[in-house]
Fold each of these.
Amino acid sequence: MTEYEGNLISKSFKYAIIVSRFNDFITGRLLEGAKDALIRSGGEEKDFDVIKVPGCFEIPLADFVKVNPGFNPEELHQVAFVFDRTAKGVVVLDDIGFRNVINQNI
């Protein structure tokens, strides 16, 4: 059996950690674990941003806005969310206004 193992090195990379404020007892601990893992693998606190969003529906939008800084989310009319990519396929929520998605699930 061949075994491959990589090194955990996070030097010279920039990261964004996006975390939901909903159920903060759990997500707060996950955030601390993610920050700890980055620091233990050579990263520094200046190398990552923490973005806190209200719930799970805002995570893909926060990710998109982070990598597209010129984008204005106020101009957004529709969002296509890809919730999950697995070997079995892709779960997509499409053609629904962003505010309707949030309002129906609060």
Amino acid sequence: MHKVLNAGLPILGMVVVFGGVVFLEDRRTMILVVLLGILLIEAGVWKLSNPFLPTERRFNELRLEVDQFMELVRELNGSAVEARGADGDAGSWARFRNTLATMHSSVERMGHAAARGPGDPPTMPPAGEEEEGDDAPLLPPDLRQGA
């Protein structure tokens, strides 16, 4: 519905503008109809109808986790720039490692939230059914404590 309305409003607006210019003779009415058509075009272009339509999203938990993950990406990059810079001390490397570990936890939560709608169970294999190699350390060797 969102796509149809967002594509249809500008088309309807153009039809209203052209119809008003071609078929109306009264200047005031023509100007009002053309302004209405321009507003319809703008409403479609700026997707102003979206707040009035129900959401089609089903996996809100996963979307929220991905949004938080994107914030972590920014935080990770900032701490990496600080740690690799001239003033990179042990504290900045610790922030980098902590952010990276938090990102790994976030990916784990994404796995539980994937394809999960309201009221659905977590989407992860039952305990003991993980593939081999799942016990690999969270951090690469060069980023572990004391590196």
Amino acid sequence: MTGAMSIGEAPINDIYTMISKVEMLYLDTLYDIGTVEKITQAGFSRIPVAYSKQYPVIVGVLLVKKLLSVEIKGETIASLYNRRELYLHLPLFLTQHANLKKLAASF
């Protein structure tokens, strides 16, 4: 149990990827073969979605395993979301100094 106990004290940046190193999609991103390849090559289980490149505010998070089950029609992420073909999870914003124990206590 020592490992489980010590991870609760670890700072969040020991386990999370900094946003500057994360592959991101935008609401106006076309969901096509190129996007699927970009997502799978990124190797993340979650991909943040921002409003646009010009206004890069994160509006939600896509779970890759759910996104890859959506039929490729060349539509935008926004179109698929508006038709409820995919779901955007609410983003959780943390500082790099947060720890897991405090994070878990907030739920």
